[in-house]
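I am writing to request your help with a piece of structural work I have in hand. Thank you for your consideration; the sequence and its tokens are set out here:
=====
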Amino acid sequence: MKLSSTFTSGKMKFMYPTVMSVANEFMAVMHEKVQQKSVLEIRELVARFTVDVIGTCAFGIQCNSLRDEKAEFLYFGRKALVDKRHGALIMGLMLSFPKVARRLRLVKTR
């Protein structure tokens, strides 16, 4: 079985118009937010822009997380990447007794 690269130069050129359309949407949302209030939460906007680009390019999904702060794709992305998998007690066990944690198949995600 032969695997091909996802991000070849030809495929990236093909993705460029898609990324530009999401970037234009990002600029429009940013201008709307500036009209509403003078201080922007840029980190949040860039995270939603990134989710839209990944969703559109990799999965062919219109996520609309720039406009919809409760978008499903954004929710599950945060849950997978940001939320902690275990509570403080289990994390303490994993750090204090790594061999026991491995035997119990406890894995840190971060």
User: Anything to note?
Assistant: The chain has five helices and no strands. The radius of gyration is 19 Å. Helices lie at 9-36, 42-59, 72-81, 88-96, 98-103.
